Amino acid sequence: MTRDQIVRLDTFRRVHEFGADADQVSRFPPGSAGRRAFVALSDILAAADQHAAVATNGARGAFVERRTARQELEIQLKAIGRTAWLINEATPGFADRYALPVPKAQAKLLTTAEAFLAASEPVAAQLIDAGLPDDFLATLRRAADDYAQATHAHANDRVAAVTASSRLVTSVREGMRAVRRIDAIIRYQFREDTELQATWRRVKRLSGLPARKNP
Known about the structure:
This protein is mainly α. It is rod-shaped, with a radius of gyration of 30 Å. It contains 8 helices and no strands.
């Protein structure tokens, strides 16, 4: 979220709490224009908070899962690659089929895993005899599948986060319109109530943003 959005959501919460106060409930009874505006703002705030949560944290969990799955897949690939080079000392050319991707070429990890699986199946006995566990092929397959699933989930969550960010922008705009409606009602209907006007000015302020210059 941007600083502007954080400040405006804080303002919406203050206005929501202001409208829920017993004194304001009596001033703005159910069915009145003021009460409808407070209810509308409450609905907008609930939606905005939900969008903000998805926009801020939506892809974080999937990112951690993808990173963990990637690290596990890299461990399996490196173990097989090192073992292949040990065999290569006695059998030149054996390790030629086990080329590891460069560290930043994450997109090639799944392709590399499939290549390692295809290359290792015919010579699994040699690799096991050189030190790999009996189930290394199943472990590599599981690591590759986990990474593929985590990558897909992370991509979906990123799309959801972008969508939520866009919806948050819309909710903030709608919230500001609702606050302006409430402002107009309070300033007109209760213009003689100086105490209420002073309280309302404190409630609706956008603390933390630079003052806007009047044209």
